[in-house]
Amino acid sequence: MSKWLFVATPENWQRCLEKRTWGVKERYKTALQRIKTGDQILIHLTENKTAGICKVVREYFEDISIMWEGDEIYQHRIGIEPLKLPPYPIDAKNSYDKYLRAEHGSSRGYFGNAIRAIPDDEFLIV
Hints:
- The protein has helices at residues 10-19, 29-33, 93-99, 101-104, 107-110, 120-125; strands at residues 3-8, 21-24, 40-45, 49-62, 76-84, 90-91, 115-117.
- By secondary structure, the chain is an alpha+beta fold.
- It has one domain (3-125): ph1033 like domains (ph1033 like fold, Roll), CATH 3.10.590.
- Strands 1, 2, 3, 4, 5, 6 and 7 form a 7-stranded mixed β-sheet that branches.
- The protein is globular, with a radius of gyration of 14 Å.
């Protein structure tokens, strides 16, 4: 089982959560295709907060139905199911600064890619 870091705006995260689906632009298609059923995803919001952990319940598929009104179609998708969601997103800055800043530098760089694999120890820290 692999661990992944996904980054989204708070608004898009709410839409993903409601539909139990994560969608991305063409440039992230290859990364999304590497994700397998049972993998876990740490959801990071652009306001430097952690929204929770989900597991993948459906591997990569394409769908052109509109899910994110007013946005792009994000036709490259996976199915997700929440595992652990706090009542409110948790500030990620303190834990990042304490455990990861020395190795990775600015949190902007660490959270700057919308999808990427992360090691188990970092998954637990963030």
